[in-house]
């Protein structure tokens, strides 16, 4: 079958249009000092003296041998390149994390979380007084505060706002070198009946996580105690090594209404693609309907009826989609590999994140051939900006290391109040997809009132990603298999919207095996961008819905040419992607839409800078149009360089040509702030470090001259690691039905995506 004749499939080898970017001399202007040297020295001395005084006033039960201190930077010094590394090194201090910080004027700056002995911090003042090098002189000017850390704000906000649902709390600690010392101090403070041990702690990079359970009778006391109470009120809100706290109770599960099962099972006649399931397990008593489910891993605790019912329903959606209400024959489209993570303790606690984290770190590497995983379970507490949950960090790291994609349910807290409405962990995972739910109401799709809302966190702010049909129990239920072969469940929730998306993505990878999961993320987001209404509120309604026809993810519209560029780029380097332009357009104006997706490692110790890598993408419509500037007059003039006489006149009049052509203004979809700021703090609040982002703009055809998109790879720590990317570009005319074929004719080296011959059109 010749795909080129019958389909307008996306071009898969856009890399052949890639070219090396010319070297650019990047200027780094010196910043004007905020204070005189003497003022900076006095300020450092005062801050260290205050730190020493606060240390002496603080109960030593809240301290370890080394203390954790915040070193604050003002708004103008947010980028990591301004870190006072020399001062830390000479003082013997260790940076163990970063966070956002607000100055007295409510400007957003940054703080380093620094570990060291109190004597080492006193050394900072001595070094500042000497200040023999220009580097030290410049560094002490950047320090805007030095303060002893305590987690009181995080603990208060977690408990006071969410104590009515709190049963389990996840504690996040800074990088403590001696875990035994930490546990000993915690046991002294909490006076637990069963002392904490190393088995109660997990480490994700430089962050330690610990989980503590409270009982319902303790919840009222939490408001007064600020944190936790067992036999008597105990306080952790001054405990220096504690970074943050978040509610980690298991998400609610409910018994579903049921109706009689009038379906007839028909076995598939061919091998099935496999999708992964992380849930409460599957009850195989449901008969032949679930014969294509295999449980690969499970926690030690015996399964519970409620968790099994939930897991069986989710598996049903993955395999069959929505079951028909009128009955008839059904055949599964997918096989399921299940990891049972609930319940993960033998008592009434449904969820132990330590067990979940450990089993996933073991199972996913062993099952890495399964590329799409659905997860509709997790902690019930909302995402907190200063707290990165262990499950979020682990899923992001597994996605990065093993090239898998987790499709995650947003949660069903949309009808609660305040921050409790926000998306639930781990839907904030930045390398993965978060799914909200819609219902069918009078023939119209409306976001379900129960759906948790965005935004996501730094690196993935535009969440939720996708809407799926989650239904309504009363008038729009999702029909699924149950734990009994005689009955079907009538379900609702984001738990059942997510597997509808996961099954489509699994089918897409099966149909188009040349795609990897990063390409798939880009393709999904590009499809949503092409159909995006700029009035849509992403935080409530997501970026859009997918078609049930997986072909639509890959096939261009009749008036469209679509191309994929993918590869790796060394951090700090640039690459230019030529935009393929046909011999002519039938329209005077065309629409350019492109999506950039990047795969990144993450750092849970830096919630303000969670993603380690990023890509900046910029369109240059005319390769020959440059700005010329005159330093003396401060005049700027644009001129095409193919007009040699005009260029010569500018040069003779003291103008200098800039190094790059004139760039088009950024046109990111859903960017909450204007993109004209060069301030690092403002750029972070936009999409600079987001792992997936789309731009959409209209350009006049006569303004295009050898257009290209420049990609610039970013690294937070200035390393030169390779950054994986996938960029999908669509060129659309209004009624230009021959655009695809004309572009292919002009660029015969371009090859459309190939469909699997035995795909069976799943």
From TrEMBL:
Keywords: Coiled coil, Hydrolase, Protease, Serine protease. GO terms for molecular function: serine-type endopeptidase activity. Pfam families: Peptidase_S8. The keyword Coiled coil applies. InterPro entries: Peptidase_S8/S53_dom (IPR000209), Peptidase_S8/S53_dom_sf (IPR036852), Peptidase_S8_subtilisin-like (IPR050131), Y4bN_pept_dom (IPR034074). It comes from the Bacteria. Residues 275-525 form the Peptidase S8/S53 domain. GO terms for biological process: proteolysis. Residues 34-61 form a coiled coil. Belongs to the peptidase S8 family. PANTHER family: CEREVISIN-RELATED, PEPTIDASE S8. This is Peptidase S8/S53 domain-containing protein.
């Amino acid at each position: 079958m010749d795909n080129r004749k019958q389909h307008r499939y996306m071009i898969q080898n856009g890399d052949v249009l890639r070219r090396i970017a010319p070297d650019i001399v990047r200027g780094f202007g010196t910043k004007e000092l905020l204070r005189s040297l003497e003022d900076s020295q006095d300020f450092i001395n005062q801050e260290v003296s205050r730190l020493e005084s606060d240390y002496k006033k603080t109960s030593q039960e809240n301290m370890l041998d080394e203390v954790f201190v915040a070193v604050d930077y003002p708004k103008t010094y947010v980028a990591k390149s301004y870190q006072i590394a020399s001062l830390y090194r000479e003082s013997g201090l260790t940076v163990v994390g970063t966070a956002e910080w607000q100055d007295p004027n409510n400007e957003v700056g940054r703080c380093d979380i620094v570990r060291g002995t109190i004597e080492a911090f006193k050394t900072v003042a001595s070094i500042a007084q000497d200040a023999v090098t220009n580097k030290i002189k410049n560094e002490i000017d950047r320090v805007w505060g030095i303060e002893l850390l305590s987690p009181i704000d995080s603990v208060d906000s977690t408990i006071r706002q969410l104590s009515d649902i709190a049963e389990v709390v996840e504690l996040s600690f800074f990088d403590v070198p001696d875990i035994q010392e930490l546990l000993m101090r915690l046991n002294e403070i909490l006076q637990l009946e069963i002392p904490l041990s190393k088995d109660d702690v997990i480490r994700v990079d430089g962050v330690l996580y610990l989980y503590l359970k409270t009982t319902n009778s303790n919840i009222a006391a939490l408001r007064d105690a600020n944190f936790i109470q067992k036999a008597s009120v105990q306080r952790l809100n001054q405990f220096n090594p504690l970074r943050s706290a978040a509610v980690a109770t298991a998400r609610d599960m409910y018994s579903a209404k049921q109706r009689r099962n009038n379906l007839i099972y028909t076995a598939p006649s061919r091998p099935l693609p496999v999708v992964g399931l992380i849930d409460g397990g599957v009850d195989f008593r449901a008969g032949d309907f679930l014969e294509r489910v295999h449980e690969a891993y499970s926690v030690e605790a015996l399964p519970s009826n409620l968790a099994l019912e939930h897991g069986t329903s989710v598996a049903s959606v993955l395999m069959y989609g929505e079951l028909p209400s009128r009955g008839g024959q059904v055949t599964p489209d997918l096989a399921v590999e299940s990891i049972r993570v609930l319940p993960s303790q033998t008592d009434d606690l449904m969820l132990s994140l330590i067990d979940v984290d450990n089993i996933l770190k073991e199972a996913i590497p062993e099952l890495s051939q399964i590329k799409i995983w659905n997860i509709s379970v997790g902690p019930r507490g909302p995402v907190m900006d200063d707290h990165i949950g262990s499950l979020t960090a682990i899923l992001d790291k597994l996605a990065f290391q093993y090239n898998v994609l987790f499709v995650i349910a947003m949660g069903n807290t949309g009808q609660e109040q305040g921050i409790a409405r926000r998306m639930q962990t781990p839907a904030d995972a930045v390398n993965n997809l978060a799914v909200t739910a819609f219902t069918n109401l009078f023939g119209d799709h409306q976001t379900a009132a129960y759906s948790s809302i965005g935004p996501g966190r730094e690196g993935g702010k535009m969440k939720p990603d996708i809407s799926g049909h989650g239904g309504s129990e009363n008038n729009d239920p999702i029909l699924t298999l149950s734990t009994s072969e005689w009955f079907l469940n009538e379900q609702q929730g984001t738990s059942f919207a997510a597997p509808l998306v996961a099954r489509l993505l699994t089918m897409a990878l099966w149909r188009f095996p040349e795609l990897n999961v990063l390409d798939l993320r880009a393709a999904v987001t590009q499809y949503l961008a092409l159909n995006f209404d700029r009035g849509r509120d992403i935080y409530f309604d997501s970026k859009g819905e997918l078609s049930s026809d997986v072909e639509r993810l890959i096939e261009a519209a009749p008036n469209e040419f679509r191309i994929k560029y993918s590869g790796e780029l060394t951090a700090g380097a640039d690459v230019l992607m030529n935009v393929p332009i046909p011999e002519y357009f039938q329209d005077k104006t065309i629409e350019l839409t492109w999506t950039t997706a990047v795969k990144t490692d993450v750092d849970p110790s830096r919630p303000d800078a969670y993603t380690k890598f990023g890509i900046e993408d910029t369109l240059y419509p005319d390769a020959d149009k440059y700005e010329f500037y005159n330093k003396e007059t401060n005049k700027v003039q644009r001129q095409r360089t193919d007009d040699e006489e005009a260029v010569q006149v500018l040069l003779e009049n003291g103008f200098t040509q800039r190094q790059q052509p004139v760039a088009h203004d950024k046109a990111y979809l859903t960017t909450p702030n204007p993109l004209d700021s060069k301030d690092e703090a403002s750029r972070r609040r936009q999409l600079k470090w987001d792992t997936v982002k789309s731009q959409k703009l209209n350009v006049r055809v006569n303004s295009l001259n050898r257009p290209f998109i420049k990609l610039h790879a970013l690294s937070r720590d200035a390393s030169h690691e390779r950054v994986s990317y996938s960029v999908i570009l669509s060129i659309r005319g209004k009624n230009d039905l021959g655009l695809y074929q004309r572009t292919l004719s002009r660029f015969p080296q371009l090859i459309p995506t190939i469909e699997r011959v035995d795909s069976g059109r799943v």
